[in-house]
Amino acid sequence: MTTIAWFGILVIVAIAAFFAGTLLTKKRFKHDELEQKAQEAQHALEQYRQDVTDHLADSKKLMAKLEENYSLLNRHFEQGKQLLSQEKALPNEPFFSKETTEQLHASLHMRDEKRRASEQTHDAPPSDYVEGESGLFKGEGSQSEQLKAS
């Protein structure tokens, strides 16, 4: 075989090796990319699971706190209900002293007597009633009568 033939075979083998190498490296790059994406997806899934677990734990704590607050509120309402339902005993001591109470009773009796007396004299004019002319109007009536007459 001649040098040109060997050179031709070498070029053909080189071209075939080049294409085989590019195919293998492309597959290798795709494989590496897919593997990297799978690892990222796995990491994202683990992060999501951790977030959900944390959220559920926080929700559980909040529910426990809500239960505690509800029970405190319920106890508070029960105590208020008991306080309102209890009958309060009135103190035996009067609100006013004995002397004040006697004076109040006496003034009530005097008031009743004044009413009865005023009912008996209902035909009489009031005590501030004045017959005839008085005050500022004294004498004006006669002047107006004189003006009318003239």
Automatic annotation (TrEMBL):
It is found in: Cell inner membrane. The keyword Cell inner membrane applies. The chain crosses the membrane at residues 6-24. It is a single-pass membrane protein. GO terms for biological process: cell division; regulation of cell shape. Pfam families: ZapG-like. Residues 109-122 have a biased composition (Basic and acidic residues). GO terms for cellular component: plasma membrane. Its main location: membrane. Residues 141-150 have a biased composition (Polar residues). Residues 88-150 are annotated as: Disordered. Residues 24-76 form a coiled coil. Keywords: Cell cycle, Cell division, Cell inner membrane, Cell membrane, Cell shape, Coiled coil, Membrane, Transmembrane, Transmembrane helix. Belongs to the ZapG family. This is Z-ring associated protein G. It comes from Pseudoalteromonas rubra.
